[in-house]
Structures are given as C-alpha cells and as structure tokens.
Design a protein that fits this description.
about 280 residues; Rossmann fold; about 40% helix
Length: about 280
C-alpha cells in the first residue's frame, strides 16, 4: 500500500553533520524519534499515514544511519537530542509533541530536560531512564554480551534480520498470522542496515544513557506507553518495569499498557497503540 508523500524532505546541516528528514501532513508538529540503529523507514508504514492526518509529522535519520552522515565519533543519547533540537530549529519548528520509541524515548527525555521550551508534550514508548532499579545487578554500559555473541555467531545482517522476528519484537501468533508484515519490516531494516561500527556506537549510546536521578525534572505532560508483554530482559531490563519506574518519577505522567504487545507493538498492533497516543496528544 502506497503511503502519503512527504510535503518536504532533504538534508540539513546541524552540529556539523547532515541529517536527512521528511515532513508529512500539516497541523501542530509531532516529532517521531527512532530507536537503536533504526532509520526513519519503519515509521512510514503505520505511524506516518495515521498521525499525519492530524499533525505535521517529522521523521529523520539519526547520525550514523540511513541517509544522514555517519561520523566515526562517540555517540550519546544526549548528542542525538542536540541533533534533534537543532533540526527543529533549522526547520523553524519552535515547539512540538515529541514521541520516542525505545532508544528514541531516551533521546526524547534529554530533549525534554535540555530543551523544555521545545516540548509541548512527551510520549515515551517502550523505554527507560537507564539503571532504573538497584535490583538490576547486570546493566552493561557497553555492547551487551548476548548481542555481541549473536552478531558474531550469526553475522551482522542475519542478526539485524532476526532482531525483528519472534520473541522480542513480535508475538509468535503474529509471526504465524502475518508473516508478510514481519517480512516487510525485516526487509526495511536489512535494506537500511547501518555500518557495523555506527550501529555499535548506537548500542553503546543506548546502554550508557542515564537519567534516572534527574528524570523527575521533566515538566512536560508525559505519556509512558509500553506493550504489556515487553518484558524481555535484554540489555536494558524489562521495558514494563522501566516504564513503571518512569511514571513514578515524572510528575503527572500517565501509564498505558498495550495489552498483548511486545517491543514492536507499534508495528504489530497499531490499532491498539495509536488510540491512546492520539487521545493524549489531543488533550495537550
């Protein structure tokens, strides 16, 4: 199915790198911030067609990905947030709803902390603040051992392909019932797989993210949304538990558990994930 066409796209030089972006629709701005090592492409499948009916939607490639520059320097979620804020400035977007998924939610936290004037509301999807609990005894600050082992044993492209398979992203039932949708996302990821070193820099940025002691300083209206089955421990602990921790710390934050959803709930069940997000955005 052919999706909407961007009303504007191209590259903008911010912080010394060229970032590729696409703008869709019209209305109040909504910025979608992608996760670890993921280009803007997956947003185009379900989120852009739905959200651009009501908002001016901005999607973009982080540095190190897609059509953006890929400098071989240290990356951090705070640096990604500076990139996003500078991109908003370059596009004359003064204030926006900011929605980040997974690592993108970590980036979104820094936008809200460092640039509160730019944030109309905040949607933190399937994400966390870092080492959110003292009971987390294993919270690697580099590339997690399991991920490194899988990349080496399977090969990088097979690792990327399988990452968007059953277990973590999608439920087994969805894999069996909608193999064409899963394949669409797997193909998108493999087609735009970043250089290995850039991807590893993204992983390190995610693992080194830490806002647990300051996330309570976020003042923007905040929705924390997560799949109810997004409990795979991985490198950052259970996303359900990390989401609950965010809600406890951010004053007035709302929590939505998307029933049956895993980490890829926005791709598996947008019909469940979109309504609470749109309801929240409309209220703010």
């Amino acid at each position: 199915m052919e999706g909407p066409k961007p009303v504007k796209s191209g590259k903008v030089n911010v912080n010394g790198v060229n970032l590729y972006y696409e703008l869709y629709g019209k209305g109040d701005p909504l910025v979608l911030v992608a996760g670890t090592g993921i280009s803007l492409a997956p947003w185009r499948v379900f989120q852009v067609p739905e959200f651009s009916k009501y908002y001016q939607v901005l999607i973009y490639d982080h540095r190190g990905l897609g059509r953006s520059d890929k400098p071989d320097v240290a990356y951090s979620t705070r640096l990604f947030a500076q990139d996003c804020a500078a991109l908003m400035d370059a596009l004359d977007i003064k204030r926006a709803h900011i929605m980040g998924h997974s690592m993108g939610g970590r980036v979104a936290q820094w936008i809200a902390l460092d640039h509160p004037e730019k944030v109309r509301s905040l949607v933190l999807s399937g994400t966390g603040s870092g080492k959110y609990s003292d009971t987390l005894t294993d919270y690697p600050r580099g590339v997690p051992l399991d991920a490194a082992y899988e990349m080496i044993s399977k090969g990088y492209e097979k690792y990327q392909h399988d990452h968007w398979g059953p277990g973590f992203m999608f439920s087994d039932e969805f894999m069996k019932g909608h193999p064409e949708v899963v394949k669409q996302f797997q193909d998108l990821i493999v087609d735009e797989v970043p250089p290995l070193k850039c991807y590893l820099r993204h992983v390190v940025a995610r693992q080194c993210h830490e806002t647990t002691d300051i996330v309570q300083n976020i003042k923007a209206p905040t929705l924390v949304i997560v799949g109810s089955k997004d409990t795979h421990e991985g490198g950052t602990g259970s996303h359900v538990e990390s989401s609950r921790a965010l809600v406890k710390k951010i004053a007035g934050a709302e929590l939505v558990l998307v029933e049956g959803g895993k980490h890829g709930y926005l791709r598996e069940m947008p019909e469940k994930g979109h309504p609470p997000i749109l309801d929240f955005l409309r209220r703010h």
